[in-house]
Specification:
The structure is a single chain. The chain is an alpha/beta fold and 214 residues long. The protein folds into two domains: 136 residues, 3-Layer(aba) Sandwich (Rossmann fold), CATH 3.40.50; 62 residues. 45% of the residues lie in helices and 13% in strands. It contains eight helices and five strands. Strand 3, helix 3 and strand 4 form a beta-alpha-beta unit. Helix 6 packs across helix 7 and helix 6 runs parallel beside helix 8. The protein is elongated. The protein starts with 11 loop residues before the first strand and ends in a 9-residue tail after the last helix. 23% of the residues are buried.
């Protein structure tokens, strides 16, 4: 909201467990803020990172403020494109325009796999410099938001919240039993798993979910 109104703001990295609502939060916040003041959401793919300088040149020509969003951002061993992203976020000759902010989601806090850091650290003359180099990318994000795995109680609260909102005709005990079985079959508990369970359950019960809430 501060950025949309022309005030200073930080790039943000939303990291953590899969299915916990990182991407949904970014899109929901953008939709809310965009109702108050114009704010463009530009979504890019991980494979598009090398083209960022060209995109920034185009965005810099527009007076409108833009939120650049990359979902599931991470880099594998041997991938050096993270350096161009690091320069773009802060420290490059041109840097990012004042009218653009960068948000990313990732399952990794430092965006780079641990084995990539450890392998290069093992052969480095000064191992500490390797660590500094690799984690300096995540340091470019002034705002970190962590999303951690949820426990069974939280998972069931989400399920029951959905069931109440959609008035699904099951008792609390039946819903809990079915939700636990679904989580065991999927081997995980998360907001995404809860939503998938509710969609399946609503379909089997012949209940419709309002499109605005999907």
């Amino acid at each position: 909201r501060r950025f949309a109104h022309g005030l200073p703001a930080n790039n943000a990295l939303l990291w953590g467990a899969r299915g916990t609502g990182k991407s949904a939060l970014v899109k929901a916040v953008h939709a809310t803020v965009a109702l108050e003041t114009p704010l463009i959401l530009v979504e890019i793919h991980r494979e598009d990172v090398p083209t960022l300088p060209r995109l920034l040149t185009l965005l810099a020509r527009s007076p409108r403020r833009s939120l650049l969003f990359c979902d599931d951002l991470s880099f594998e061993s041997g991938d050096q494109t993270y350096k161009s992203l690091k320069a773009m976020l802060e420290g490059g000759i041109e840097g990012r325009p004042d009218t653009m902010l960068f948000y990313a989601t990732s399952n990794r806090r430092h965006l780079i796999p641990r084995d990539m850091i450890e392998n290069e650290q093992a052969v480095a003359i000064i191992p500490g410099e390797v660590i500094d180099e690799k984690i300096s990318l995540s340091d470019r994000f002034g705002l970190w938001l962590g999303f951690h795995p949820i426990d069974q109680m939280t998972y069931l609260e989400i399920v029951h919240g959905y069931a109440t909102a959609f008035t699904l005709p099951l008792t609390a005990e039946e819903l809990t039993t079915a939700a636990k079985a679904w989580a065991i079959a999927r081997g995980a508990r998360s907001g995404r798993i809860a939503w998938q369970f509710i969609q399946d359950l609503a379909g089997r019960l012949g209940c419709r979910i309002p499109p605005v809430l999907e």
